[in-house]
Design a protein that fits this description.
Blueprint: H1 2-39, H2 45-56, H3 59-69, H4 73-98, H5 100-120, H6 131-150, H7 171-208, E1 261-266, E2 273-276, H8 277-281, E3 286-293, E4 304-313, H9 314-320, E5 334-339, E6 344-348, H10 349-352, E7 359-364, E8 367-368, E9 378-380, E10 394-400, E11 423-428, E12 438-447, E13 453-460, E14 466-467, E15 469-470, E16 480-488, E17 491-501, E18 524-529
Parallel strand pairs: 1-10
Antiparallel strand pairs: 1-2, 3-4, 4-7, 5-6, 5-10, 7-8, 7-9, 11-12, 12-16, 13-14, 13-17, 15-16, 17-18
């Protein structure tokens, strides 16, 4: 039937066009990966375009992505970019069957976008960053042109055009071109991945061989009783593998400790300094238990963790460079930390030099920093949210003023100054749990860095506030565990927690968003208590170790 034959012909045409487009896109990305492995892995087109998208995404959208996807937000972004690229590639493939030059031009346009994104990155190193996107686009355009030309029937020696059973397509020529393209692209991608991995081996080896010195000032002994023996309560010390990670790096920087350098310069710096890692490790180190909090942490959220950090007191380095705090007439009131990927974070100089344990950390929980958390060196300032204090992969410290310079997040409408707010969280029971009637242990953590936690209270439904039992306090810069034995009655109940810090300030009930300086409000969970059929089984007793 003519109608069926025509439809089948169009379907085959669309299938081969989309296949050609996808193969061309795969070729472009594979060659770009290969060139990036030779030039600089961070200059790959998906990485630079993804970084550009992150930089131009409104703060509210970023906050939504973190809230919705958590630490998988970067994977979701990369998958989104690849999905959009695949859809456009399929459309260009179909277009190329009729207009080869137009289809190839579309692929080249993506190369221009990638090159522009590479140059816009704050960590761009020069013209070499253009090469992955340009080389990938040129190869992808050529691949599409060749496959499109092979996908049409060619005249035989007698000058006649013979159509195959697919309705006028040179099946053998197309499949041959597609097969060669696929094999070549796969080989290029594999070689590119090998080169990229090889470039990172030096960094991995430098971390594995690093031996951390003993601290000149060890962390105070953790008091007995900081860890409650209650199932479901977050551990006092967060393992490195469980520590939250919130940043804008699509690929984790891997820096060779032997080549790493740190500069200290800027306003009020009378003696600029450049340090190697060995020079920092040769200095007296301090070891402290410090709780870090991300400003994107919603009330009751997971982006808070406590670790034992080893590092160089930052105030000492600044003093040696001639820096004077503003309260004593210093010129600079802002310290801008820059990471290897171009991220900038701004911290108040006064806070860094007021006696708190601000440091350039080199160790976490007894080991060199993990790559995810800033190896070889990151900055920490207790009491401040991470976006104004916790620069990972740090390479530069510039002293300036808040009036003269807005760091990355401030340009995106976040506050310039952001001390951590008093917060508390219910870890157990979980939301929508169904405990049995009787004694139920409610427990969790509370934090107010630099002030400490002196009281935690629980309220069930609209009842009175009841004091919870506090675990031992390890210090004002760490979180504190708490528990409450609740005589639960059948039915649905809202459980709410609030904390009081060392200044006597009670955690506010007013709910605010994370933007511009951290969320506020009180965490609550809803549970349904079930009726027991026999003697109620008591919950575990709140004890300490």
């Amino acid at each position: 039937m003519p109608g069926v034959s025509s439809f089948r012909s169009k379907l085959v045409r669309a299938a081969r066009g989309t296949s050609a487009g996808l193969l061309a896109a795969f070729t472009a990305l594979a060659v770009a990966e290969l060139v990036a492995g030779l030039v600089r892995p961070a200059a790959g087109p998906v990485t630079v375009v993804g970084g550009a998208v992150i930089d131009r995404t409104p703060a509210a959208v970023k906050d939504f992505a973190i809230r919705t996807f958590g630490e998988n937000d970067k994977i979701v972004l990369q998958l989104g970019i690849l999905t959009i690229l695949a859809l456009i590639a399929m459309a260009l493939g179909v277009l190329a069957l009729s207009h080869r030059r137009a289809g190839a031009a579309g692929v080249l346009l993506f190369g221009v976008v990638g090159a522009a994104a590479a140059l816009s990155r704050p960590d761009a190193t020069g013209i070499g960053d253009l090469l992955p996107s340009i080389a990938g686009a040129l190869t992808g355009a050529l691949a599409l042109h060749v496959m499109a030309s092979r996908a049409v029937p060619a005249p035989d020696p007698a000058g006649e055009v013979r159509e195959d059973s697919a309705g006028g397509w040179n099946r053998r020529g197309f499949l041959t071109a597609a097969g060669v393209t696929a094999v070549a692209a796969t080989s290029a991608g594999a070689l590119g991945r090998f080169l990229t991995d090889r470039r990172g081996r030096g960094a991995v080896a430098s971390r594995e061989s690093l031996v951390l010195p003993r601290p000149a000032s060890p962390a105070p002994a953790v008091p007995a009783g900081v860890q409650l023996k209650i199932p479901g309560v977050t551990a006092f010390t967060t393992a490195g593998s469980d520590f939250y990670r919130v940043d804008t790096a699509l690929t984790v920087p891997k820096i060779d400790a032997g080549t790493w350098r740190l500069r200290i310069r800027g306003e009020g710096v009378t003696r600029p300094r450049t340090y190697t890692l060995d020079q920092l490790l040769a200095r007296p180190l301090i070891e402290r238990d410090i709780t870090l909090t991300c400003v994107s942490n919603e009330v009751g959220g997971p982006y808070v963790g406590n670790a034992r950090w080893l590092g160089v007191p930052l105030a000492d380095l600044l003093k040696e460079a001639g820096v004077i705090p503003p309260s004593r007439g210093g010129k600079a009131d802002q310290l801008v930390a820059r990471s290897v990927d171009g991220m900038t974070l701004g911290s108040p100089v006064e806070d860094v030099m007021d006696g708190r344990d601000a440091m350039l950390a080199v160790g976490m929980n007894g080991e060199p920093l993990p790559f995810d958390h800033g190896f070889p060196v990151r900055m920490l300032v207790p009491g401040l949210y991470g976006y104004v204090s916790a620069c990972k992969w740090i390479t530069d410290i510039e002293l300036t003023t808040f009036d003269a310079y807005d760091p990355y997040w401030v340009k995106r409408k976040w506050a310039r100054r952001a001390p951590v707010k008093t917060q508390s969280r219910i870890d157990t029971p979980r939301p929508f749990a169904r405990p049995a009637a009787g004694t139920v242990t409610v427990a969790g953590v509370a934090w107010a860095q630099r002030r400490g936690i002196t009281r935690v209270q629980i309220r069930v439904d609209d009842g009175p506030w009841q004091d919870a039992d506090l675990a031992a306090q390890a210090g004002v810069d760490t979180w504190r565990q708490w528990s409450y034995r609740w005589n639960a009655t059948p039915g649905g109940h809202d459980i709410t927690v609030r904390a009081t810090d060392g200044t006597g300030q009670v955690q506010t009930e007013q709910r605010t968003r994370t933007i511009p300086d951290g969320a506020s409000g009180r965490h609550s969970v809803f549970v349904t208590v079930t009726q027991t059929t026999g003697r109620p089984k008591a919950a575990p007793v709140s004890t300490t170790s």
